[in-house]
Design goal:
Number of domains: 1
Low-confidence stretches: none
Number of strands: 0
Mean pLDDT: 83
Order of helices and strands: HH
Structural class: mainly alpha
Largest sheet: none
Length: 120
């Protein structure tokens, strides 16, 4: 009986220690789970923000593409208009050419004394 009692006491001590260790392990697991949930929430938030930015960028690209198409159409219309005007020019007349820019230096600025003289 004494051996049985000692055996039961040893088993009880082991069970208490195992229970304490299990509780510590459970607390660690709960802490790890909380951290993992926080990380998942942060990742979901970052993903949502990235998707919103991507959507905004796609809209900007679509807008820029539409603007490019409008500008190309306008350029084609202008080129066609210029071609039509060029074909309307009589054969004997040449289009007016601009005079080449002068090679003369611009006049020097007036000194303060010259400005005073020119006012009177």
């Amino acid at each position: 009986m004494r051996r049985t009692f000692i055996g039961c006491a040893i088993i009880a001590v082991l069970l208490v220690r195992c229970n304490q260790q299990a509780e510590a392990d459970l607390a660690t697991c709960k802490s790890d789970l909380t951290k993992a949930r926080d990380e998942v929430t942060a990742a979901k938030t970052a993903r949502t923000e990235a998707e919103q930015k991507a959507t905004a960028l796609q809209q900007q690209v679509a807008s820029a593409n539409a603007q490019i198409a409008q500008l190309q159409t306008a350029a084609q219309e202008a080129a066609a208009k210029n071609a039509a005007e060029a074909s309307k020019t009589p054969a004997g007349t040449a289009p007016k050419a601009k005079a080449p820019p002068s090679n003369k230096a611009p006049p020097a600025p007036l000194t303060p004394e010259e400005r005073r003289r020119s006012k009177f």
